[in-house]
Amino acid sequence: MIELSVYYNGLKEAIRLTHRSQQTWDLDVIFAGGSKSQSFHAFLDDLDTRIRHFTDACDDLVQRGNAESRTLAQLVLDMQEIAARTRESGAFISCLTAQDVRDTDAKWLLGRLQHMRATFTSALTSFNELLTSLNDLAFDELLAQPQISDLAFALQERVRRAKEQLPAPEEKLIAKLSVDGYSAWGELYDTIVGRMHADIEIDGQHEEVSMGQLANRIASAQASDREKLFAIWEKAWAGEADLCADALNHLAGYRLAVYEARGWTSVLQEPLEINRMSERTLHAMWRVIEENKRAMVRFLEAKAKLLGVNKLRWEDVDAPLCDAASNKVSYEEARAFIVRHFARFSEDMAKFADSCFENRWIESEDRPGKRPGGFCTSFPVSQQTRIFVTFSGTPGNVATLAHELGHAYHQHVMRGLPQLLSNYAMNVAETASTFAEAIVSDAAIREAETDTEKLALLDEKIGRAVAMLMNIHARFLFETRFYEERRKGFVKADRLNELMVAAQREAYQDALVSYHPHFWASKLHFYITGTPFYNFPYTFGFLFSSGIYAQALREGPAFAEKYVALLRDTGRMRVEDLAAKHLGVNLEEQSFWQSAVDLAAADVDAFIALANKLS
Ligand SMILES: [Zn+2]
Q1: Beta strands in 173-213 (DSSP E)
Q2: Residue 386 DSSP class
Q3: Where do the DSSP E strands lie in 347-452?
């Protein structure tokens, strides 16, 4: 392993601000008083009443069998208002639980909200029944109502989706059975993982760690410890493989049974519909990735050489080339760096980011009791956004901050749109965040003081591309093949291992010396019941954003306006239409995807040139 010292030169700007940015967020301006907030309790009481009235109105109309378009229009607007208020409440509660994981009052509030959400969801099934029972003439009449015509996309999508499902009584029964027959398998998985632990030894120190802690230890381990720790990791999952295989098989079996009842033949139908994309788009994307693996393989080979080995092991792929922890930047420096580089693309984006710091929309303090990770959440009623991170001054923290600010900007440019047109799917959700992160990490690479520093930053950046084009690809290949076999019966743990390693070998083009057979057990994403195929939307988002970034680089600041227009449409168009309208490209063809993959390949060339120069 080579010794590199990395620090963000660009972040070490001598900046003098009149006051330091506060690192705790302001929630009081939304609901004063935290989890004991009187105004929030009143807000929930009011929401409860609205949901009850909505439920009664839907049931009443279903029973009567027909409704005037004026009455229906009011129901649509009520539904939209409830959706916005539910989201506002959920955002507030997630901020409360994140800032203090021991806030029991906040947990109680979450329970209350979940109950209200379930009631609302059930009412929506009746609401869908009303919409689908309309003939074309009646539906057009509804769309002609004031305030409703703008919502055509959302209403047509709702009707189309409802029509692909079974009649309401059957769907209601499925929803009821899914609590114990479907979601329960995901919860069982959480229980399995929650009680798992491993005994490890680092530098002669024995330690009992959770699986989350073990993952962190592997990520930060020295080369000599990495292989040993990873063996413990793999063995721990092998120990629970039978239980995980049960959960995975039954979860998939339930899904297949529901699909069969609805007459759906492809397991991709649901995830593609959720992400508003066509199967041709998905295949065009994967084909380009398959044809361009060589660049990623060259990177893995070069990294292996730098680490002094012939081929990388699975656990080496993300190993840092140096110790990044020693290169701290202050919060003020991070703020100035982000704002300065956002401004190169868009003054508006820079101004917005700065106002997030100024108005205390960001919770970034490094203190105990906060939940790990980062997120960005929007308050549609207050028209505000909040960002949650824990900032300890690493370059990775700066990238995360830029990422979350990208999400916040996305929500900012959508302000004023009706709630029903503000829901964007996972595959475009990461567009603005990845874009913002790319601006900042490219700037850091450009302004790096030394070649070794630049090499380490490039390694981090290409590492994200490897994750998207190889690791996620392996997950997609595995899941597709697993479902094929699951149709015929139970797939045992050993067979799941075989499928997993075969998918990894293919996705990594045999570039590694070892793989991760129990990856299917260790990765939570396979057990998320809310979103099937929790993989390809990541790769889509990454490449979609890269393609947009490539265009922004070509067009300069003139692109800023186009970018905002594209983001504003993410909740009211299918992705193919979105790309055609704003980028002039066809996502079902390979050329757009090629331009995105080319950017990653260029990074690999730079990395190899630099690595050769340094060795
Ligand atoms: Zn994100």
Answers
A1: 197-202, 205-210
A2: E
A3: 362-363, 375-379, 384-388
The rounded mean pLDDT for the chain is 92
Output the CA 215–ligand 1 centroid distance in Å. Answer: 20
| Ligand 1 geometric centre to CA of 62 (Å) | 40
> Nearest-CA neighbor of 197 among 206, 185, 188, 205?
206
In tens, the pLDDT along 550-573 reads 889 889 888 999 999 999 999 999
Residue 406's nearest CA partner among 350, 333, 484, 486 is 350
Chain centroid to CA 98: 17
The token duo for 592 is 């757009």
pLDDT tens for 449-476 read 889 889 998 999 999 999 999 999 999 9
Count CA atoms closer than 13 A to 72's CA, side-chain side.
27
pLDDT tens digits along 416-427 = 999 999 999 999
Report d(CA 533, CA 272) in Å as an integer.
9
DSSP 8-state code for residue 329: -
Protein residues with C-beta less than 5 angstroms from the ion ligand 1: 433
Q: Alpha-carbon Rg of the chain, whole angstroms? A: 25
Between 370 and 300, the more confident residue is 300
Q: Which two tokens stand for residue 448?
A: 């790096």
For 200, the 3-state DSSP assignment is: strand
pLDDT classification of 168: cutoffs 50, 70, 90: confident
The model's pLDDT over 51-65, given as tens digits with 9 standing for 90+, comes to: 999 999 999 999 988
The Å distance, Cα 340 to ligand 1 centre, comes to: 21
Q: Report the alpha-carbon distance of residue 431 to residue 542 in Å, rounded.
A: 7
Distance from Cα 406 to the centre of ligand 1, integer Å: 8
For residues 336-354, give the mean pLDDT.
Answer: 96
Q: Which of 61, 50, 109 is nearest to 85 (CA)?
A: 50
3 state SS of 580? helix
What is the Å distance from ligand 1's center to 407 Cα? Answer: 7
36, 105 contact by CB (below 8 A): yes
